[in-house]
Fold:
Amino acid sequence: MAVAYEIPHTWEEPEALHELLELVREQRSDANLRRIRYAFYVAEEAHSGQARDSGEPYITHPLAVAMILAELKMDDDSIVAALLHDVLEDCSSITPETLRAAFGEDVVLLIEGVTKLRMKSLKDASPRQRASAETHRAAESLRKMLLAMAKDLRVMIIKLADRLHNMRTLDSLSPERRTRIAAETMDIFAPLAARLGIWQMKWQLEDLAFKYLHPKEFQEISDLVAKSRKDREEELRTAIVMLKERLEGKGLRNVEVQGRPKHLYSIFNKIVKHGFEFDQILDLLAMRIIVENDSDCYVALGIVHDLWVPIAGLFYDYIAKPKPNGYRSLHTKVVGPHGDPLEVQIRTREMHQIAEFGVAAHWTYKEGPKGADTSNRFSELRRQLFDWSTDATTSSDFLRSVSTDLFSEQVFVFTPKGDVIDLPKESTPIDFAFRVHTELGLRVVGAKVNGSMVPLSTELQNGDVIELITRSNAHPSLDWLEFVKSAHARSKLRNHFRKRNKGDNASRGRDALERELRSLGLEPKEFLGDDKLMAIAKTTSDCENSTDVLAKVGEGLMSVQSVVSKLRGGSPQQQKATADTIQVSKAKEGRLSLAGTGTDNVMLRRAKCCDPLPGEDVTGYVTRGKGIMIHRKVCPNALNLLLSEPERLVSLDWPPDSSSYSVMLKIITVNRQGLLMDISTILGEAKVNVAAARIRTLPNQTAEIDITVEVHDVQHLNQVMTRIGNFADVISILRMFGRTASK
Ligand code: MN
Structure:
């Protein structure tokens, strides 16, 4: 859909905008100047009435930022975004929606990216002495920047241009703010510009920051450089003329030979860091030869070495062997016309563009065939962006320590579409899968890293591109817990295994309910419909669906009887009140008193098959001379007795008293040291005695703990099970039946 870019006729185009448009027009014949002009108009309207600290109209700032980007030969979207980069933050009249309608999604993403990178100001009076807490915060900022950069490198380039203009206009700020911003520029922004290979910006940012951080030294060095340049200007001019004649004499066309000033901050570094005297820094002047193609570079090198004596060991061929950031050039040092060392760089125009503009140059050169995948084009760049291990020269000490912190804890990897995902260090494709989507984690069967199949336990490296292979009927394996690194993946896996156990419990619960219903002469199918169970789930805590209800029954956390009663539409209280339920008034030392029956001192026996507890739905089986055997109503044996000897069963109401009863639990956990101790602590806090415990390590880094505990009643047991189940490393906890008696 075409956008009109309507601007009122009465509006006058400022001269500065005209300059910007001219520059863009010269660079790119296909640039959409109407769109850029309209972006300026919108920004100017939005910022009208706002002023910078210098008193100038605010619009001068975004315009200057756009100009810096145009000088870097950035694309239309970047320039439009630069013009509008402060409107979302500063102007309430503009929303992302209006910008999207006028300029498209890409521009909005760029503007939002830049806005998010705004760093919270550091309050400390002495920003150079940041506390370690500050480093942590900086690491977080750096992380944000890296994520934004990885998504679209242009965000960072716009941000750097923004910072460069702010540094150029720093004079109007208070001395404290000046120092703070200059320090941040030196620590973070200049090194980031270096990482992106944008040397133009790197040295400007450094020299400006240097000026505000060390005003005295800055002045001294610039005076010395100016003086020495005067002294050596003649020498340099002679050298340039001689060289140009020779080069053209050999038939090289379109050759440029330039004197190359050294940057003030790099001289300061040599003096401060390496202890040189200013007089010792002889390579203040250097020369650059720019030629048409690669082979001309070597021809030019031959001519230079023929003209002046090369200094041994100071020749570097970065064309045959480019630097990791893609930098290419020939470097040599020779004895110059007056006997002083002269540094010479030789490169083609394209190499020069990349050397000066770094990443930004990628928007200047039109890439290969139409429709080529742009994400591929940047994948190598991204990899470099996240490869900080090889990077000693392009970082400040501060950034290096921050990034060391950051990269010792995190790893940044990519989806095939180029989205960046940050994960804990040592993460695997499984962590990646769960991070992208839970469903992906549960269905993954294989992974490709950078195009090759790898084991699912492979440790991911910065910049890896990960492609997952899934199958719709696949399931996670318990071994994965052995190597997953992120808490997120771990908890998703644990949930999954819990649910799978729940499936077993649910089918046990369904069996029990079916048996109970049949014993009452009812047809289970009519009562166990999803809708009826769902209705129960709604009124029961921790139950979301019918499976949860069945699982609770199967685990014995909910009584068969109460569920059946609810299914039949009655309430469990009514059931309890029926005449043939006998109240157990006292259970002491293995003896029961049955209230209202005149029966005292009946021998109590807990059935070994189901280990019933007070508070549970139980049934009493009147044995032949051995007292009453208590079963849980869910117990399969009790259900069988209901069919074979219903006359011997009595309904019992067994309330808790002060006695304790042993129950067996099986806990499956992630295996680690101190685990049993942690679980004992939980049990101790819950005032539960441990009668026996056995831990067994399984080969998949999990452990199985069989533990016999003594509890007062079913509620007490449920509390304990919930507490242990909530413990981070526990995968599942089950109440076991029929084994406590064996102890
Ligand atoms: Mn700005």
Summary: Confidence is low (pLDDT under 50) at residues 121-130, 366-373, 571-579, 739-743. Residues 61, 85-86, 162 surround manganese (II) ion (CB under 6 Å). The longest strand covers residues 661-670.
